[in-house]
Amino acid sequence: MEAIGGRQRLLALKALRATGVTKIQGEELHFTMWAARPDLIRTETTSKGRVLTQGYDGVNPPWVLDSKTGLVREMGAVAARAFAADVDFDDPLVLRGGRQISLDYAGETEIDGKPVFKLLVTENFTVTFSLYMDRSTYFIIRRDMVKPGVN
Predict the structure, then answer these.
(1) Predicted TM-score (pTM) above 0.70
(2) DSSP state of 58
(3) Which DSSP string corresponds to 87-118?
(4) Strand order in the sheet with 50-56
(5) Helix, strand, or coil here: 119?
(6) For residues 90 and 83, what is the distance between their CA atoms, to the nearest angstrom?
(7) Can you tell me the distance from the alpha carbon of 42 to that of 91, in angstroms, rounded to the nearest whole number?
(8) Nearest to residue 20, comparing CAs of 141, 148, 147?
């Protein structure tokens, strides 16, 4: 935590924007995510000119807007639980709160020519993913997760 500015600096962070690529069934989808404390989130995922916007305010059911139809609807129960469960503003390395998190060092590698640490993260004994941290800044630069039923 100290390597990325300390507890007070992290608590002062109220909102963030992130962009990236996710792969689902062999297709690359570009996304932008906006998040704010404590558990507000909005994502826009783009594929072949179509934009899916999803959001959650921490109170009302998560929703989705499909640019193809122009309609806003509540997410189905299973999708809503999964979306809301992924809302945690803080990453699992800092400010963990009441979450049960196990961290395991998984070695070092390179991403785009940069040396990184690889960590295996297990949350609540059920969800497992890999985090890649830049060795010089300790910032997380990538997260790899495979969700059951999704290739």
Answers:
(1) no
(2) S
(3) --SS-TTS--TT--EEEEEEEEEEETTEEEEE
(4) 15-24, 27-36, 40-47, 50-56, 63-66, 71-74
(5) strand
(6) 15
(7) 17
(8) 141
